[in-house]
Write a structure and sequence with these properties.
By secondary structure, the chain is an alpha/beta fold. The chain contains 8 helices and 7 strands; from the N terminus they run E-H-E-H-E-H-E-H-E-H-E-H-H-H-E. Helices cover 43% and strands 15% of the residues. InterPro entries: NAD(P)-bd_dom_sf (IPR036291), Sc_DH/Rdtase_CS (IPR020904), SDR_fam (IPR002347).
Amino acid sequence: MTNLFDLTGKTAVAIGGNSVLGSAISKGFAAQGAKVAIVGRNLEKAKEVVKEIEDGGGSAEAFQADVCSRDSLLEAADQIQQWSGGWDILLNAPGKNSSTPFFELEMDEWDDIMDVNLKGIVLTCQIFAQKMIDQERRGSIINISSVSSTTPLSKVFTYSVSKAGLNSVTQFLAREFAPSGIRVNAIIPGFFPAEQNKKILSADRIESIMEHTPMNRFGTPDELQGAAVWLASEKASSFVTGTLIRVDGGFGSMTI
């Protein structure tokens, strides 16, 4: 039987692949045979992820880029092109958060979060999807959204707005890129404690999250691998585009 999830011969570009969730997904791609370009602003962290992938028998390389800089992303794209000859999968996993109350929010902070979480994704899709189209490579773009994108969470106003925008970008580009054979989907993770949200996880907030999560626990980063590999695989998800896939322990189905 054909392995529906085999990514052998594919190259994945993981923007934010040095983050907690991005690195876990990148390792999932590598475990299924993909070469993975780990792209991050912190090159040392990216190299650490590469080493973990290589130690597991996979193939990866680290590249430095800032998602807020078109020139930086273009340079990384050229370097990845030289390394792999192109790519078939684009993972967009950068993220920035803040718990600043609405009336205390300064526009510099708003711009900073929106630049990383939304503008940066638009830039990466312009650059990396264009090259996929130019090379006539069918492929998959996977954006990492959030449960706050559909029903805004308290204390994370700007983050919630940016992720809601990301959902719209995902569905627009799914329609835009479908004629070129590129699928665009988003994963909506539930609560996976990572660097950008640990600082707002007080005891009371954790209790509230657990009461609203039927599975009554946080997710672990490797639990995102299945959904990501499925969306990356042309064999497994060839007719899937424009979708928002929840991996949230039931959070999105919970009410009173």
